[in-house]
# Entry
Amino acid sequence: MEILIISGLSGGGKSKAASFLEDMGFYIVDNMPAGMILKFAEFCAAGSGRYSRVALVYDVRTAENFDEFLEVLSTLRQREYNCKLLFLQADVAAIISRYKETRRLHPLQEKSGSLEEAARREIELMTPVRAQADVVIDSTHYSTARLRGELLRLFGRQGGAGEMMVSLVSFGFKHGLPLEADLVFDVRFMPNPFYIDDLREKTGLDREVRDYVFSFRETELFLGKLRELLALILPLYREEGKTVLVAAIGCTGGRHRSVAVTHALAGYIGSLGYQVTENHRDMTRS
# Structure
């Protein structure tokens, strides 16, 4: 069982990190007292695998002091758990800026008097926890996408590319663009099987239509260039933290050319190691 404890400074990015880790398959528990962590770990370990990846958020809101937490952390590491401590931090100026944007009070602000003093006090209090961290991320200059990408790199399942889902959609321009598309490719320049009597009622999933579409040199040239483009940009999207990329391929009606190209691309993208789905939105429409 994998246990990841998320700790760090208020305003350091713990909430965003927890949200991204949940997308990656972790079961998230926020604000758990140290005294409950061991019992919760035992409960998860005794389960049927549903809680095989758990992330617990632990911070200054929970603790009177951190001695109990550090003892629990030591115990978890001695047992047969894959236990790591992730510590997120940012500089005082960044923390102040983030709290001003949210208009929330820092957990220590009422006792400290000012936001700056609260941030500095928390840095001091959290020093023993930071010293035990397996991973420290300073999010001062991180965008949301960069933080997500770093977490994917550090805690994504083995296999890398599979952490991003690529959703391929074929469509007909006469029925409108797919609103969710990140990328749109137009294949209306290809010869149209609609004008071949024997192919009109078939679809791009039928062998006869695919053979016709790919019998033309321009189709093969286009697909080759498109494969090169995707091989270049898919890793870049993943590094930016993209979890789902939607690519739409359109022809006039969405029945023949776009379907054939989408189906061919799905096989290629799958061979690169990405999770891929294909959806032929307009294939059965007239």
Observations:
- Residues 162-280 form one domain.
- The chain has two domains: 2-157, 162-280.
